[in-house]
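INFO batch 0412 | record 1 of 1 | parsing
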Amino acid sequence: MERFDIAEELKKLPDKPGVYIMHDEDDQIIYVGKAVILKNRVRSYFRESTKKTVKIQQMVSKIRWFEYVVTDSELEALVLENNLIKEHQPKYNTMLKDDKTYPYVKVTVQEAFPRIVVTRQVKKDNARYFGPYTSAGSVREAVELLRKAYKIRVCTNLKAGPCLYYHIGQCEAPCTGNVTKEAYTENVQKALSFLNGNYKPLLHQLEEEMNEAAEQMEYEKAAQLRDQLQSVQLITQTQKITDLSGDDKDVIAIAGDHQSVIVQVFFIRDGKILGREHYYMKQTEGEETEELLRSFITQYYASSPKIPHELILSAPVNDRELLEEWLKKLRGAKVSITVPVKGKKEKLAELAEKNARIVLQQDIEKIEREKKKSELAVREIENLLGLQDLARMEAYDISNISGFDSVGSMVVYENGRPKKNDYRKFKIKSVAGANDYASMEEVLTRRFAHGLAEREQGEDGKFVRFPDLILMDGGKGQVHIAERVLENLGLSIPVCGMVKDDRHRTRGLYYNDTEIAISTNTEGFKLITRIQDEAHRFAITFHRSLRGKGQVHSVLDDIPQIGQRRRKEIMRHFNGLEELKAASVEELMRVPGMNARSAQCVYDFFHEKK
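INFO prediction complete | emitting tokens
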């Protein structure tokens, strides 16, 4: 694009609400924000007199151009901001760290004969959903119990005829017409009543059936009913009754500092605490609690199928009235956001905040333990290799599918911990086929040549930091490739190979032309294994993502008459590109799905190219 003059573009900003989108030099979206007045908000980032956090200062220094979308209202801006953040995951926006999905109980009331299932996907399909629940095991147990107690069908096809559940007495087989729709619906309503917290009818029913079975000396059946009764009692005991009204509520509290922030949520349904869960936030440096809570609420409830009547917060939140209006539109009914200062609600908010602090403290202690283990592992590797001051390690791997497409990966560990912001991906450009050595040579050359150029120009770029140790996914051959690249570039960095045995498990290190055995029960060995697995995982993940997007271009893509199905069969049949090139027409015809015409096309393609 043409040069973007930020000063001139700032003058053009409208006096209207909307969303602004910041881009860096690589055209990546690095920040998305909403504004009541775009002109005032966007200009404030570039005004020297405006006080900014360190994070915002860093973000502003990366901005090369911006764009904006004018909206009719601040509410529309809030919705658009949230959608763009979710889609682009900008580097400098505060984000929900976890992408957890929790189990729900789904009752397919839109069907003539409803089913009860456990699901992690909530859809707008007119079914009834209950949850979220934090224990998948308890949910499955409850669903199994309801199916048995009320003889709810499991099958998805009513035309299939009676199944095993009918023959063992756990389903009345509506598929056969043995039960009327009215009678079946009555049982479903009892199950719905249970899911809404009315446990007494089922407890009473199970107790009566158990006593009757015992009187009839059907002791095995009585024992089964006793176990079911105990399961229901266990489920009911885990529901902590509150003295609040029966409305649905979520209690939200926040705890943390600039490095680690946790949000704790209590789910209250019909006056009972169904469960609780904590969520991590990232990119929180310099953000105030009010803004962190706003970010959490917008991101969490944008995809939540169950929006409660009230949110009880432990602290004030930015844009409270705007959030209430937005939540009302999502829920289709009024939603209140309150920050109680006394009474039972305040006690609940205090309890949630206390839980958040406990989880945070446990995390801090865990991080400290992991840090000590990592430091010990690095010291062990130093001793094995005779190195000192080993801080940054970079590991490299090549991934391909049957040798036809290759990509490279670079993962970074600092002080024994992964530094994922420094991971890098490479599409192999100069190498055709399954040549891991040549592919690795390209990756290393590009990485360090780029780093040298950044150093020469005084840039704080993506490759400017060099490692204290290079780890290769392999032995002697890969190490010598790396050493040759470094020598050609005039660099002196230790290179070590991570050697695997015949079962593809790490067995030792290759350093200074010597294989060094490493004890498998040491922290150093565990760290080497983690690094090797991470380099492999990152390369494979990158390769799969590109295959899914159709961005990895194979030489097979250029062969006439060869579609996706035949390409896959060719890749399965031959052990790499060289073997394919050497194949005769007769050999090519042995590939599943290949006819004479297609085989000839493949043969001609490679031989004409020669």
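INFO post-check: Residues 108 and 580 are 53 Å apart (CA to CA).
INFO record closed
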